[in-house]
């Protein structure tokens, strides 16, 4: 016969569970408001559409297109020894370790405790001899404790995935730091090359002016000139000498900058010789722009991983509203005032086992405020991702516009040099023959100097804009970097509705945008922040809605340094040992070179 009291207790427990859950603090209507932007929904602009779209993405060793072995060696030295890059890599390792710490919460925790304490009893009148007088006893305990958190609501799983997503973001940040370092080395090297060209111009101009001053003195001695002409001819000499000194200073500073970027002392830059940069041919854009941009730019990849991490943070905040259940068990032996090994006897053993439950009922709105913080963090991350996409397209368009403008400027600057050089030769010859005064020579020489400097600066700008365009395209990657799946960029609660709303917004924006080039029209992302279908082959694309196992959360790779010929790149490595390892290897692609250096043209013009 069943006990009615026991049945009543069981029934009460059954009804109490939903009442307890109903009594939990409520999240209310707190939810994120922002969503990611589909790059294909943005109008790329006329400059990008009109550019050559048959080019490939930048090669891993893109700086080798400048055809300067000395530059190649300094980029390699910077990648190997730059402290700032080492800091970024240390942050990656720290984030990976933190992800491992969070993943450990998914496993049972077993701890052992042991205490051994001896006590000698006195034998005197005050304490009384007693049965333990003048004896030593032991108070020993030993226990084995097990605890396991039942992750019913996915709090620990989402916390582990959030930490892993942040580790992926830090890896992308490290790749961005590497790209910035590469570009800074190339820019400093180009600036060094420009200062050498300007030094040649200043030295040539000083030599010309010294010849004119000599001619003025001869005319004065021959009774054909005046002292005023001599003074006018000698007046610019100190200024030209000052320019030479200033350019020597700039060259020394550029050498120091290159040495510092390589993590070396200023003395290492003393061995740098004159750069020999040469680029020819126009630069183009990849045909998959802008769809594949989210997989090639490390800052965009980092922003997407940050959005995914913030989404998991919202899931963690939601889980805090529900009961927290732990399974606890312990087994051990305890003995007091006995022999040393008495605590190991069976009759002194004990065990405990059972669940422990905690439930938030009244918290003064703390949990709802925490959810609000997480939601606002998600909105911030999503809008930062949107801004990164907008800025990326702007940077690419800016460089395309600059390249087109500088191509025209280079032709005009060279024509100006030719005309100014011819004008100076005529003015100087006329002055030598006494057909014109020195003022015309001074004006012609000033025009020639400015024209030659303009050619040198335009050429340096053309070399620099190529490096800036490479940076805008995300540098050299063999294949797009993996990012989170579309489903992982939304919180679990309302994920389908959020994704549907984001797609609807992207479709509406895309319908108002200008049509993309035909070559890129076939590339679609299918989502707001999914790089899979746009940036990777279909066989490797993320499946929307696929959830990562907690032990392999985000099996997408993390980036770490590996040694490559002439450079240091990143390989991909998962943060957990159980994740499958994959390595991003470099691929060498022929880079499209720009126009050849025009310093020889300047020298030839001076020789005329």
Describe it.
With 608 residues, the chain is an alpha+beta fold. It has two domains: 32-106 and 155-323 and 366-607, Outer membrane efflux proteins (OEP); 108-150 and 326-358, Single Sheet (Outer membrane efflux proteins (OEP)). It is built from 15 helices and six strands. The longest helix is centred in the N-terminal third of the chain and has 67 residues, at 155-221. It starts with a helix and ends with a helix. Mean pLDDT is 77; it is low at 512-528 and 530-608. Residues 1-25 form the signal peptide. It holds the Pfam family OEP. Belongs to the outer membrane factor (OMF) (TC 1.B.17) family.
What about the largest sheet? 4 strands, antiparallel
Reported by name, the CATH topology of the largest domain is: Outer membrane efflux proteins (OEP)
CATH superfamily of the largest domain: Outer membrane efflux proteins (OEP)
Task: Tell me, rounded to a whole number, the average pLDDT.
Answer: 77
Report the order of strands and helices.
HHHHEEHHHHHEEHHHHHEEH
Q: Biggest sheet, strands in spatial order? A: 1-2-3-4
Q: What is the strand tally?
A: 6
Give the C-alpha Rg. 37 Å
Number of structurally distinct domains? 2
Number of helices: 15
InterPro entries: MdtP/NodT-like, OMP_efflux
Pfam families: OEP (PF02321)
Protein name: Outer membrane protein OprM
GO molecular function: efflux transmembrane transporter activity
């Amino acid at each position: 016969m069943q006990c009615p009291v026991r049945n009543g207790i069981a029934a009460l427990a059954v009804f109490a569970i939903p009442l307890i859950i109903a009594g939990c603090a409520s999240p209310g209507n707190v939810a994120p408001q922002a969503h990611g932007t589909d790059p294909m929904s943005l109008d790329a602009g006329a400059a990008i559409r009109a550019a050559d779209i048959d080019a490939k993405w930048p090669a891993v060793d893109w700086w080798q297109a400048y055809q300067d072995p000395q530059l190649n060696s300094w980029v390699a030295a910077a990648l190997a020894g730059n402290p700032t890059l080492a800091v970024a890599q240390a942050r990656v390792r720290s984030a990976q370790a933190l992800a491992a710490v969070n993943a450990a919460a998914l496993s049972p925790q077993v701890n052992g405790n042991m205490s051994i304490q001896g006590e000698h009893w006195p034998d005197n009148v005050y304490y009384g001899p007693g049965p333990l007088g003048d004896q030593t006893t032991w108070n020993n305990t030993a226990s084995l404790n097990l605890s396991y958190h039942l992750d019913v609501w996915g709090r620990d799983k989402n916390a582990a995935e959030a930490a892993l997503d942040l580790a992926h973001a830090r890896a992308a940040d490290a790749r961005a730091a590497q790209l910035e370092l590469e570009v800074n080395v190339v820019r400093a090297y180009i600036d060094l090359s420009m200062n050498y060209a300007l030094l040649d111009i200043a030295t040539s101009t000083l030599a010309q002016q010294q010849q004119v001053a000599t001619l003025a003195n001869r005319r004065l001695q021959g009774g054909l000139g005046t002292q005023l002409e001599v003074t006018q001819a000698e007046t610019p000499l100190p200024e030209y000498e000052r320019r030479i000194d200033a350019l020597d200073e700039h060259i020394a500073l550029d050498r120091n900058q290159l040495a510092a970027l390589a993590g070396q002392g200023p003395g290492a830059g003393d061995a740098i010789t004159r750069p020999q940069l040469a680029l020819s041919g126009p630069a183009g854009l990849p045909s998959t722009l802008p769809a594949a941009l989210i997989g090639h730019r490390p800052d965009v990849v980092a922003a997407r991983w940050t959005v995914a991490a913030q989404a998991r943070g919202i899931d963690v905040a939601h889980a805090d509203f529900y009961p927290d259940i732990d399974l606890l068990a312990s087994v051990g032996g305890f003995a007091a005032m006995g022999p040393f090994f008495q605590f190991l006897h069976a009759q002194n053993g004990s065990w405990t086992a059972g669940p422990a439950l905690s439930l938030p009922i009244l918290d003064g709105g703390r949990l709802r405020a925490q959810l609000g913080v997480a939601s606002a963090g998600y909105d911030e991350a999503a809008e930062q991702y949107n801004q990164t996409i907008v800025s990326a397209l702007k940077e690419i368009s800016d460089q395309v516009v600059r390249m087109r403008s500088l191509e025209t400027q280079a032709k005009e600057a060279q024509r100006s040099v030719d005309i100014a050089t011819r004008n100076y030769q005529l003015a100087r010859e006329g002055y030598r023959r006494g057909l014109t005064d020195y003022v015309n020579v001074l004006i012609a020489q000033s025009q020639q100097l400015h024209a030659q400097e303009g050619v040198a600066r335009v050429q340096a700008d053309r070399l620099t804009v190529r490096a800036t365009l490479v940076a805008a395209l995300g540098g050299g990657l063999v294949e797009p970097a993996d990012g989170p799946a579309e489903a992982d960029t939304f919180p679990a609660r309302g994920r389908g509705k959020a994704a549907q709303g984001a797609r609807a917004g992207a479709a509406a924006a895309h319908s108002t945008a200008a049509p993309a080039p035909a070559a890129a029209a076939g590339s679609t992302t299918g989502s707001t922040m999914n790089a899979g279908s746009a940036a990777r082959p279909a066989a490797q694309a993320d499946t929307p809605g696929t959830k990562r196992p907690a032990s392999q959360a985000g099996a997408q790779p993390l980036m770490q340094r590996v040694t490559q010929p002439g450079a240091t790149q990143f390989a991909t490595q998962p943060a957990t040992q159980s994740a499958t390892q994959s390595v991003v290897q470099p691929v060498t692609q022929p880079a499209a070179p720009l126009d050849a250096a025009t310093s020889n043209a300047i020298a030839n013009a001076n020789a005329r």
